[in-house]
Design brief:
The chain is of the alpha/beta class. It folds into three domains: 121 residues, DNAb Helicase, Chain A, CATH 1.10.860; 267 residues, Rossmann fold; 44 residues, no CATH class. The chain is elongated. It contains 20 helices and nine strands. The termini are far apart.
Length: 519
């Protein structure tokens, strides 16, 4: 028995020795922290270089966190930053004794003579902080993974969300003061003024952009319509305007059409060649030239299309984070909401209405997380078809869930009267509805409502601004100048019905760009 006891005791001690992970010293660079803080107190240039690069949390030593917070407070209020002002601010905050008093601050300033290489040092401190954050998150993931009650898809989503925050250098902040938020708001207003009133991503439709000031960051926008109204055509037109005309990175998630089908529709829209011609390949010589020349702009556009079928909200969030991190996308399109699934995060089965509620709620959360607009298409119920009158959609027609209306910042509808054999608009002018559509903004959390008319070009599958020419004289003048040009193709001359349609001017000479003709 005496031989057995030591063996058991030894085995027990051995198992304790193996588990030493928690005894490791976390990654740190305290000496560089001292150098950076000292440089900031003796040289204002050092403060300007790194004040927006790091925050108090990145410092390993608690005393250094308090010192940087004091420096940051002085910077925000426009006060000078030196040994005396920092000591005064720490005293005001009640942290002077915590950091070691004025003697410790003097020691920090004596460690450096200038702010040279301060940015390089600050980035090393930031890297150590990221390493510590990864260790912390990894431990949390390990602990959660042993919890059998945790849904695996929720666990994956949480893990990826936390890792995304680290890659963006955007570890969750605490609440901010009104003073700080007012300063941010004033800066944003100044930026908007410089952009001539557009604070968001421009859709390319003038009246719509005037109403919304562009699609706003963190907004969830729902565009709903009955089948055949042109939901995909409208969002493709927007994606084209944003990516091709403005060179803004766009992510387009298509659950209905393949990526090749979508790009073919964009080629049709860009070149003015009908989808039928592109499908059959029966193009004349000049049409092949037209295709090769005009498709070059589309090839260079920062447009990313994902056609994964039955995409879950978890997969979409993971893909969106990756695109935001790697390509800096500024807007997301989802075509369309009812084809998505809630994935494993939908507990207990639930009904379809609850699933759609989960999806819309997560889309809004994604928009806020990435701070970009998310535009999701949605189907409308058949109640529109059974209703008499103009058959304009209403908010109550949103299919399967009232949560869509609640979560969305903007709810809009596409309405084409000619689809219902309605020849005239139901207004005082009673203008013909042929080739026209109405973009109805029925809910706008941060702005007004409106009904904006657009031009719909069916054979090209695209939408454009309705008013392209100010007067008939301007139109005929431009047609005459085009007819005298050697490159003008008689086959492309617009008919009387299309006299004021921008789709008929695809082959006008380049010098007409200054009149606002879309090419």
């Amino acid at each position: 028995m005496e031989k057995v006891q030591p063996h058991i005791s030894y085995s027990s001690k051995k198992s304790q020795v193996i588990s030493l992970e928690k005894g490791k010293i976390p990654p740190q660079a305290v000496d560089l922290e001292e150098v950076v803080l000292g440089a900031m107190m003796i040289d204002k240039k050092g403060v300007d270089e790194i004040i927006d690069l790091i925050n108090p949390d990145v410092f390993y030593k608690e005393a250094h966190q308090h010192i940087f917070a004091a420096i940051f407070q002085l910077f925000k209020t426009g006060q000078p930053i030196d040994l005396l002002t920092v000591a005064s601010q720490l005293k005001k905050d009640g942290n002077l004794d915590v950091v070691g008093g004025e003697y410790y601050l003097i020691q920090l300033t004596q460690k450096v003579s200038s702010s040279a290489h301060i940015e390089f040092h600050a980035r090393i401190i930031l890297q150590k902080f990221i390493q510590r954050s990864l260790i912390k998150i990894s431990n949390e993931i390990i602990e959660d993974s042993y919890d059998e009650s945790t849904d695996v898809f929720d666990l994956l989503d949480t893990a990826e969300s936390k890792l995304y925050e680290i890659t963006q250098g955007n570890i969750k902040r605490s609440s901010e003061t009104a003073q700080n938020l007012v300063i941010q708001a004033k800066k944003k207003i100044e930026e908007i003024a410089n952009k001539k009133g557009l604070s968001g991503v421009p859709s390319g439709f003038e009246k719509l952009d005037k109403l919304t000031s562009g699609w706003q960051p963190s907004d969830l926008v729902i565009i709903a319509a009955r089948p055949g109204m042109g939901k995909t055509a409208l969002t493709l037109s927007m994606a084209r305007n944003i990516a091709v005309s403005n060179n803004i990175p766009v992510a387009f998630f298509s659950l209905e059409m393949s990526s090749v089908q979508l790009i073919t529709r964009l080629i049709s829209s860009e070149t003015g060649l009908s989808s039928e011609k592109l499908r059959t390949g029966q193009l004349a010589k000049h049409e092949w030239e037209q295709l090769n020349v005009k498709v070059k702009h589309l090839e260079k556009a920062p447009l990313f299309i994902d056609d994964t079928p039955s995409l879950s909200i978890f997969d979409l969030r993971a893909k969106a984070r990756r695109l935001a991190s790697q390509h800096g996308i500024k807007i997301i399109f989802v075509d369309y909401l009812q084809l998505m699934t809630a994935g494993g995060s939908q507990k207990g089965g639930g009904n379809r209405e609850q699933e759609i509620s989960t999806i819309s709620r997560n889309l809004k959360a994604l928009a806020k997380e990435l701070d970009i607009p998310v535009i999701a298409l949605s189907q409308l119920s058949r109640a529109v078809e059974t209703r008499g009158g103009s058959k304009r959609p209403l908010l109550s027609d949103l299919r399967e869930s009232g949560a869509i209306e609640q979560d969305a910042d903007i709810v809009s509808f596409i309405y084409r009267p000619e689809y219902y054999k309605i020849d005239q608009w139901d207004d005082d002018e009673q203008a013909p509805t042929d080739g026209q559509a109405e973009f109805i903004v029925a809910k706008h959390r941060n702005g007004g409502l409106d009904e904006i008319r657009l031009k719909f070009i069916g054979h090209l599958g695209k939408f454009e601004n309705l008013e392209t020419f100010d007067t008939p004289v301007e139109f005929h003048s431009r047609m005459n100048s085009a007819a005298n040009d050697d490159t003008f193709k008689p086959d492309n001359l617009p008919s009387a019905n299309d006299a004021f349609g921008p789709d008929s001017l695809d082959d006008l000479p380049p010098e007409d760009d200054d009149h606002g003709v879309p090419f």
